[in-house]
Amino acid sequence: MAITSFAYTPTDNIANETTYVTTPTSETAARAQFKDIFDQIQNGVNAIKTALESTATGSSGASCIKLETVVGLAATDVQGAIEELKTALAEGVDISSVIGEGEIERAMLEADAVDGTKLADDSVDSEHIVAGAIDAEHLANDSVTEDAVATGVITANKIANAAVGLAQLAAAVLAIIPRLDGGTEITAAANLNTYVTPGSFKCISDAGAAALGNTPTNAAFLMYVSYGTGGTTGYVKQEIIDRHGRRYMRVTTDTGATWSPWTQNNGMIYGTSATPPVGIYPAGTLYIQHEA
Question: What is the CA radius of gyration of the chain?
């Protein structure tokens, strides 16, 4: 039901002397003339109320209420706007044409309201992130992996002093770096022929060293295992430094199936006396006397 403009009958209302005579014949006739006018007003108001309350398809009350222009909506009345919004919500809303740049601020968003499930792949890149906005508190555990970092992105000037320690290095990296604590302890009575994976190893007692298989020394030692020819896995080198400072080295070319003999790389000591200081030295150690 549409809402139409109210009009009196007759249209000239009380000015019409035929319907509303100047001199009614009686008090009752005079009252009837006034009642007719008031009844028309009441009926007009009731017609508007009925139209606004209507739920009939195509002529509901909401369709009688007009809208001013709304950006992004083609509808001109409330009913049409509601139907258009319902369709848009069902199909997915593109709000980019409705919300201007900078109109949504952080203060308007609830904590954690925007997460990975709300963002399209590759929708956020470096141009959309304020410098310093992402720190350790905003990264989930293990969220940054090797495949998430472009080659060459992390350089020395992007790493804070002392930010990378042993705890931050993967086990695979630590295995090939001689560690300050001597590395992994060698298993009791182990055969050193089986140690062919690059890494740092230690034997912490003389008794432990004596019980090992294919060891060149009966003294506690550190052992470094590395590839012998630039990463070729079959070629492995073992180097031992025992607690007396003696160095031993050997190699394998078939991943430990056979080994070369241990060779001792003796060092040199210096002093001002005519004879070396009292101590235990490996055979072949060279003593050099320099000016007192």
Answer: 47
CB atoms within 10 A of CB 10: 12
Q: Which of 178, 216, 223 is nearest to 202 (CA)?
A: 223
Main-chain dihedrals φ then ψ at residue 288, nearest 5 degrees: -120, 120
d(CA 151, CA 236) in angstroms, rounded, equals 30
Cβ–Cβ contacts within 10 Å for residue 239, how many? 16
CA nearest 281: which of 219, 224, 238?
Answer: 219
CA distance 63 to 77: 6
CA distance 89 to 106: 24
| Helical H segments across 111-216, by residue range | 171-174, 206-210
DSSP 34: H
| Claim to verify: residue 179 and residue 243 sit in the same structural domain | yes
- Nearest-angstrom CA–CA distance, 183 and 241: 13
Task: Judge if 55 and 78 occupy the same domain.
Answer: no
Q: Taking the model in full, what pTM does it have?
A: 0.37
242 lies in some domain? yes
Instruction: Please give the structure tokens belonging to residue 181.
Output: 């604590």
* Alpha-carbon distances, residue 219 vs 97, 150, 196, 215 (angstroms): 78, 48, 21, 10
Domain region containing 35: 13-61
Q: Tens digit of pLDDT per residue, the chain (292 long)?
A: 678 888 899 999 889 989 999 999 999 999 998 999 999 999 989 989 988 888 888 888 888 888 888 888 888 889 888 988 888 888 876 666 666 676 777 777 777 777 777 787 777 777 778 777 777 777 777 777 777 777 777 777 777 776 776 566 665 555 555 455 678 999 999 999 999 999 999 999 999 999 999 999 999 999 999 987 666 678 999 999 998 888 888 999 999 999 989 887 766 666 778 887 776 565 666 777 766 5
Is residue 135 assigned to a domain?
A: no
Q: How far apart are CA 160 and CA 183, in angstroms?
A: 26
